């Protein structure tokens, strides 16, 4: 049966762990406030997955922390209010206590009163009578297998001093796990105290948080995958450059953006791993590249579904609507990505982030509905015209897109289950598969588009040409009724009739497209 105090601490964890993006492995504290909880005040100093320290052949007296995992406290200062300081006796050596507590997520139930079943995080005189805690300190039930953990570091105010400086301390981590750092105090007279300084968190191979380590490798491999796809596309592009249509240039742009996006994220993670901080410029470029690629990818699927370059030469009156939807999607995606990758956990509230997620979900749904609606109209038009080659192409595209949508829905369900079943990030070592899967799915869909619309020596199988010439080739429709091709003059007359038929059908197609645009 869970203890009451355990439930209180779980709520603390959930509050700060709903969005698990941290700004870096160097956690900066800039005059942060302590939050009241039960009979204590606390500040959440950081959360990261850390791997156990390992022996390194490069370790030396000059580099004692080589290959070590640690949390280092640098220039951490606590500032209490002037009223709180003046209320103390100047002759007293200890007039206020701030406790720094580091715990592994499995030990969360060891913080607070788990024996007397009270709602207390701090020791009270009544609890002290039972002789298992000290009045004014946070209650910690130490792990019998590791008596030092959860770890407590105490910092005292002296006399009437407003500041208390935490000693430069480095805590080595020898067990792999998700670690939480809290600063807490129990004295209500310290209400209004703020904290400034920073902590440095480091894994054995660098400063990259443990749950992000596999992503750096993934982004490196993904950039190589885009490079291979781009090389394939480039060779086809050069080989059949005379038969290239406008759609091929848009596909080329999406491939280039995907390759740039993956490369930028790889270098951004590599820099974070080596320095411990995220370079603002590279991060903004990577975020913007992601937003641009997501937008253009959706626009590409939409215009392909509309039959652009295949059954219609232009988008006509829908161009402004497509542009407006793309612009809105780029803006909300850019805002969400900036919040997730540049903001720390305490910068934005849960409600603020939900407000940014909802527009992205709504616009994604709008894209999906429009894409399938356009696909339905395109397939209907191709069936009416009996363009069998193009109809087969679009059926393959429709089936592929439907499979990807079903996979996406299934993965969304799994992601919701994963987050609901792991509120405290205990599965942090496999959480990287969530963002990696979406990148892999986007790459796979782009590869399908590249295969279906690859440049070839037979562009008439998908290129727009007024449909007449395609229909003539596929269905052997005779355009020479009443003619006998027995001489050069007869041949010329036949060609004139074909051209006249092409012109007539072209005008008809354009009228149909204009009518569809008006309806849309």
UniProtKB/TrEMBL annotation:
Residue ranges of every copy of the GOST seven transmembrane domain listed in the record: 214-459
GO-annotated cellular components: Golgi apparatus; membrane
Superkingdom of origin: Eukaryota
Main localization, broad class: membrane
Signal peptide (UniProt feature, chain positions): 1-24
Pfam family, one: GOST_TM
InterPro entries, A to Z: GOST_TM (IPR053937), GPR107/GPR108-like (IPR009637)
Keyword Membrane in record: yes
Localization annotation: Membrane
Keyword Endoplasmic reticulum attached: no
Compositionally biased residues, Basic and acidic residues: 491-500
Membrane-related topology note: Multi-pass membrane protein
Key words of the record: Membrane, Signal, Transmembrane, Transmembrane helix
UniProt region (Disordered), positions on chain: 489-520
Membrane spanning stretches: 212-235, 247-267, 279-303, 315-332, 352-372, 393-412, 432-454
Full protein name: GOST seven transmembrane domain-containing protein
Origin species: Solanum pinnatisectum (tansyleaf nightshade)
């Amino acid at each position: 049966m869970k203890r009451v105090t355990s439930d209180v601490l779980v709520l603390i964890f959930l509050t700060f762990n709903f969005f698990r993006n941290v700004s870096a492995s160097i956690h900066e504290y800039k005059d942060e406030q302590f939050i009241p909880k039960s009979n204590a005040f606390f500040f959440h100093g950081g959360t990261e997955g850390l791997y156990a320290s390992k022996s390194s052949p490069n370790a030396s007296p000059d580099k004692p922390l080589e290959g070590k995992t640690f949390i280092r406290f640098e220039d951490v200062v606590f500032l209490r209010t002037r009223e709180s300081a003046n209320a103390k006796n100047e002759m007293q050596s200890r007039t206020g206590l701030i406790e720094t507590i580091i715990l592994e997520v499995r030990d969360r139930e060891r913080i607070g009163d788990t024996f007397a079943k009270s709602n207390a995080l701090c020791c009270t005189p009544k609890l002290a009578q039972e002789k298992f805690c000290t009045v004014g300190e946070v209650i910690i039930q130490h792990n019998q297998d590791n008596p030092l953990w959860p770890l407590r570091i105490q910092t005292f105010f002296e006399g009437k001093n407003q500041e208390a400086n935490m000693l430069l301390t480095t805590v080595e981590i020898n067990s792999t796990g998700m670690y939480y750092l809290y600063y807490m105090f129990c004295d209500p007279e310290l209400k209004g105290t703020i904290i400034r300084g920073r902590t440095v968190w480091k894994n054995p191979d660098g400063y990259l948080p443990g749950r992000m380590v596999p992503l750096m490798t993934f982004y490196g491999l993904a950039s190589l995958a885009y490079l291979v796809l781009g090389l394939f596309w480039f060779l086809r592009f050069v080989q059949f450059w005379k038969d290239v249509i406008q759609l091929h240039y848009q596909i080329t742009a999406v491939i280039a953006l995907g390759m740039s996006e993956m490369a930028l994220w790889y270098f951004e993670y590599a820099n974070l791993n080596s320095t411990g901080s995220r370079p603002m410029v590279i991060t903004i470029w990577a975020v913007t590249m992601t937003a641009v690629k997501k937008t253009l990818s959706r626009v590409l699927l939409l215009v392909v579904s509309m039959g652009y370059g295949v059954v219609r030469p232009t988008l006509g009156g829908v161009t402004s609507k497509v542009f407006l939807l793309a612009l809105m999607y780029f803006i909300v995606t850019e805002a969400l990505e900036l919040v997730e990758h540049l903001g720390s956990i305490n910068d934005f509230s849960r409600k603020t982030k939900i407000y940014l997620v909802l527009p992205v979900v709504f616009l994604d749904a709008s894209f999906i509905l429009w894409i399938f609606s356009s696909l339905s109209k395109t397939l209907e038009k191709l069936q009416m015209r009996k363009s069998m080659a193009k109809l087969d192409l679009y059926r393959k595209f429709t089936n592929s897109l439907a499979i990807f949508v079903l996979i996406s829905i299934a993965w969304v369900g799994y992601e919701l289950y994963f987050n609901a079943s792991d509120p405290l990030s205990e599965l942090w070592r496999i959480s990287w598969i969530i963002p990696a899967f979406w990148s892999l799915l986007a790459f796979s869909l782009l590869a399908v588009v590249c295969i279906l619309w690859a440049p070839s020596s037979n562009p008439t199988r998908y290129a727009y040409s007024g449909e007449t010439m395609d229909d003539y080739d596929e269905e052997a429709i005779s355009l020479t009724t009443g003619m006998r091709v027995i001489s050069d003059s007869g041949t010329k007359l036949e060609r004139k009739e074909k051209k006249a038929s092409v012109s007539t059908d072209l005008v008809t197609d354009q009228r149909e497209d204009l009518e569809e645009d008006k309806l849309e």
